Amino acid sequence: MLLQRILWLSATAVSAQPSDRPRLNFNFPSNSEPQRFTIKVDESFLNNTIHKVRSYRPTHGLSSTWDIEGPPAKSLTDVAEYWGTQYDWNNVQKKMNDDFDHYATTVSGGDTNATPLLLLHGWPSTNLEWSKVIKPLSENSEQPFHIVAPDLPGFGFSPEPQHPGLGLREMGSAFDALMHQLGYEKYGIATTNLGWVTGRWMTIDVRDSILGHMCDFFLAEATTEDQA
């Protein structure tokens, strides 16, 4: 079976016991063995979220430039309006369950000729960002890939860290350990946005594991000419 998705249950340097972890707002297997599960977010959490979105009150900003005060109030108001009146999570949840098999830990790939590829999403996002490329990549007869597409800790269905110290650089070491746990000694990385930061550190910290790093994002400081 081709590996289609991995949801990372624990991403802390010191693993928290189940009793230490806050109650999640979705069903998630708690054992350490590979286990398939169906995504189902608690209805009470959904209702509470809708209530908060519909009660959103925009703040008064002094600038409409994103890099000064963040998104303009008008943009956030439009987003809140969309989430509160048009967005249907249950339809999205159904599509995620219909389109992919979800596992709480690991699933081995079946094609030994496939190239392992770690996909790291951006902010604010989840591994669903890669949903349209997973099948084309994993089912390509000329160059198949074993796709590993985790949620970054604290995003999507990957619970947030329970201890300090898991930054974007540290995530890279943890993801490298995950790939080795899956049996992939060498693998490629494809990243976007926030995931690029982790991927960049991985090419430095665990470079012997990396076949290559493809990204569509790069940070560059503005020059004096740019600012003129």
TrEMBL record:
It holds the Pfam family EHN. Residues 1-16 form the signal peptide. Keywords: Aromatic hydrocarbons catabolism, Hydrolase, Signal. InterPro entries: AB_hydrolase_fold, Epox_hydrolase-like, Epoxide_hydro_N. GO terms for biological process: epoxide metabolic process. It comes from the Eukaryota. Residues 35-130 form the Epoxide hydrolase N-terminal domain. GO terms for molecular function: epoxide hydrolase activity. Belongs to the peptidase S33 family. This is Epoxide hydrolase N-terminal domain-containing protein. It comes from Colletotrichum salicis.
